[in-house]
């Protein structure tokens, strides 16, 4: 009997010790949790939180701001563009289309490409793996097709009609240029022996296209641009550029912009070339550029003699200036949406009217912001692995 009482007492003592140990452990866990919460709260900007969730009348409001910052799946190869007032975002992992109003995903896919390059036009997104064999076409809301090429892809572009122009290496010549429609039907195949294709463009209707090749002449690199009517086996015209770098080609209706390191040219009717910005007497440096929703050009340049002075011009498809703005410092990027121009500087974002040029607002930021655009009443920025709103 006495031995049973001793055994029961020993067990009860053990249970009390176990309970005490559990209480101590839970107390430690709770203390750690509280410390983490306090540390997290200490990082918050309460003014920013208030502005995101409480409107001007003091009412709780869950709007677009509540969905941001939006976290991306990678900080590598991030590119944010706007199409049809949607945010289209490329990373090294995926392509995502966001509704900026509430931050919801309208469409997203993982691409698995090693060197993804994205081009957008209207409702279409073309993605290709440069130097590899995969190319795909999507809309802002779903997949259209993915195809595998026989030889490595050099470059590609998409039209508003869903036609895709791409160039690949060639087994018989230096390059081959293809045009595919939105049903993956081949509309053109053109062998190119003048050089390796480095850029391509197609007009919004899918009827006209152009490609640029690079080659050497007298130990000097030379770029030649060819214009072609889709379905034809012969170019309409060619234009030689020596001593400069061709940065981009872009159609505006039936006309085309050629952006070089030292100026802008326009091509009308596939055959008439004229210089819009920059001359031999007054050279310029290209700083950055973009295109408006109706495919007209916004171009920022600095002069050789005054590199700190930068000018932004709105150029129509015939090469005429519609607007000119002097900028106080060198911008990192420029974008356009709706009827507004967004200029990203190292320490701020400035918004201007596209039609009149007056400044509509300035927003502070830091140098981590890589792109910015104003949609509706909010300025969206991309920094590292986040899409955010700046107030």
Task: Summarize this structure as a short list of keywords or feature phrases.
391 residues; mainly beta; four-stranded antiparallel sheet; 2 helices; 13% helix
Please give the alpha-carbon distance between the first and last residues: 79 Å
Low-pLDDT segments: 37-57, 59-63
Strand line-up across the major sheet:
1-32-31-30
Oligomer: single chain
Question: Would you kindly provide a written description of the structure presented here, covering whatever features stand out?
Answer:
Strands 1-32-31-30 form a 4-stranded antiparallel sheet, with no helix packed on it. The protein has a 4-stranded antiparallel sheet with strand order 2-3-4-5, with no helix packed on it. Strands 6-7-8-9 form a 4-stranded antiparallel sheet, with no helix packed on it. Residues 37-57 and 59-63 have low confidence and may be disordered. With 391 residues, the protein is mainly beta. The protein has helices at 2-43, 46-53, and strands at residues 70-71, 79-83, 86-90, 94-99, 104-110, 116-121, 124-129, 134-139, 143-148, 153-158, 164-169, 175-180, 186-192, 196-202, 208-217, 220-229, 237-242, 246-252, 255-260, 263-268, 272-277, 284-291, 297-303, 310-315, 321-327, 333-337, 340-344, 348-353, 359-364, 369-375, 378-383, 386-390. The protein is globular. β31 and β32 (386-390) form a beta hairpin.
Briefly characterize the structure.
This protein is mostly beta strands and 391 residues long. The chain has helices at 2-43, 46-53, and strands at residues 70-71, 79-83, 86-90, 94-99, 104-110, 116-121, 124-129, 134-139, 143-148, 153-158, 164-169, 175-180, 186-192, 196-202, 208-217, 220-229, 237-242, 246-252, 255-260, 263-268, 272-277, 284-291, 297-303, 310-315, 321-327, 333-337, 340-344, 348-353, 359-364, 369-375, 378-383, 386-390. 13% of the residues lie in helices and 51% in strands.
């Amino acid at each position: 009997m006495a031995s049973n009482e001793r055994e029961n007492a020993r067990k009860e003592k053990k249970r009390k010790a176990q309970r005490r140990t559990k209480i101590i452990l839970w107390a430690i866990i709770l203390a750690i949790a509280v410390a983490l919460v306090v540390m997290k709260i200490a990082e918050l900007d309460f003014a920013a939180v208030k502005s995101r969730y409480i409107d001007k009348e003091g009412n709780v409001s869950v709007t677009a701001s509540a969905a941001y910052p939006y976290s991306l799946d990678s900080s590598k190869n991030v590119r944010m563009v706007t199409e049809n007032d949607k945010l289209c975002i490329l990373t090294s992992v995926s392509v995502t289309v966001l509704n900026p109003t509430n931050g919801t995903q309208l469409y997203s896919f993982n691409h698995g490409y090693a060197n993804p390059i994205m081009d957008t036009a209207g409702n279409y997104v073309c993605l290709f793996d440069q130097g590899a064999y995969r190319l795909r076409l999507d809309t802002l809301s779903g997949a259209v097709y993915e195809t595998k090429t026989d030889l490595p892809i050099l470059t590609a572009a998409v039209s508003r009609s869903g036609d895709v122009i791409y160039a690949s290496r060639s087994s018989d010549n230096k390059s081959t240029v293809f045009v595919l429609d939105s049903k993956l039907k081949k509309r053109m195949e053109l062998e190119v022996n003048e050089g390796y294709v480095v850029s391509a463009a197609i007009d919004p209707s899918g009827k006209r296209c152009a490609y640029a090749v690079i080659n050497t002449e007298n130990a000097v690199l030379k770029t030649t641009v060819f214009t072609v009517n889709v379905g034809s086996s012969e170019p309409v015209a060619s234009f030689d550029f020596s001593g400069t770098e061709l940065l981009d080609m872009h159609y505006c209706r039936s006309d085309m912009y050629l952006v070089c390191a030292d100026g802008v040219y326009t091509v009308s009717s596939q055959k008439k070339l004229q210089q819009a910005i920059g001359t031999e007497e007054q050279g310029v440096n290209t700083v950055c550029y973009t295109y408006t929703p109706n495919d007209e050009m916004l171009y920022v340049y600095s002069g050789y003699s005054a590199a700190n002075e930068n000018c932004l011009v709105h150029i129509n498809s015939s090469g005429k200036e519609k607007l000119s703005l002097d900028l106080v410092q060198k911008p990192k990027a420029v974008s356009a949406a709706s009827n507004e121009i967004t200029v990203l500087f190292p320490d701020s974002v400035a918004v201007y009217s596209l039609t009149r040029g007056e400044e509509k607002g300035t927003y502070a930021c830091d140098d981590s912001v890589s792109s910015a655009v104003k949609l509706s009443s909010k300025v969206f920025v991309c920094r590292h692995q986040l899409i955010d709103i700046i107030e």
